[in-house]
């Protein structure tokens, strides 16, 4: 039987996260982006016209870190930043190039995640989502 303690639980969650990130990075390599960039692009699409501060709050990440990643995907032509009436604030949207990339990757992502989570039954996957959601 597996011993359950806080360190073991944190380690297992961390290792799972690393495995997912590594799988995504391998999958995304041919497109010239990393998992962190792709995940941010997905969320820019989800929260269209958000500011970097709003995105950082929704994603529970450091605004400085998100700013660097946004700059990177902007340089690749995947997003645009439009200045608002407050010249310090920009609304972020996905470009046509970004939408095309998201469309290409959507089906492939599904296959990767199906393979990754195939050891779980549907009921176990639902339970896992519920349990992990309590932590965030």
Automatic annotation (TrEMBL):
Keyword Coiled coil: no
Domain of life: Bacteria
PROSITE patterns, per the entry: HTH_MARR_2
Gene3D superfamilies: Winged helix-like DNA-binding domain superfamily/Winged helix DNA-binding domain
Domain HTH marR-type, chain residue ranges per copy: 6-136
SMART domains, A to Z: HTH_MARR
UniProt keyword terms in alphabetical order: DNA-binding, Transcription, Transcription regulation
InterPro entries given in the database record: ArsR-like_HTH, HTH_MarR-typ, WH-like_DNA-bd_sf, WH_DNA-bd_sf
Presence of keyword Transcription regulation: yes
Database matches in Pfam families: MarR
A Gene Ontology molecular function term of the record: DNA binding
PANTHER family: TRANSCRIPTIONAL REGULATOR, MARR, TRANSCRIPTIONAL REPRESSOR OF EMRAB OPERON
Protein name: HTH marR-type domain-containing protein
Species in which this protein is naturally found: Liquorilactobacillus hordei DSM 19519
């Amino acid at each position: 039987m597996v011993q359950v303690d806080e360190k073991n639980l944190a380690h297992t969650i961390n290792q799972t996260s690393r495995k997912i990130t590594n799988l995504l990075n391998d999958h995304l390599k041919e497109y010239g982006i990393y998992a962190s960039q792709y995940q941010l692009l997905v969320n820019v699409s989800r929260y269209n016209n958000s500011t970097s501060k709003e995105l950082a709050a929704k994603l529970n990440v450091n605004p400085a870190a998100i700013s660097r990643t946004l700059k990177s995907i902007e340089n690749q032509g995947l997003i645009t930043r439009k200045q608002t009436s407050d010249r310090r604030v920009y609304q972020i949207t996905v470009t046509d190039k970004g939408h095309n990339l998201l469309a290409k990757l959507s089906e492939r992502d599904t296959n990767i995640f199906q393979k990754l989570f195939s050891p779980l039954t549907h009921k176990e996957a639902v339970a896992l989502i519920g349990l992990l959601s309590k932590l965030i």
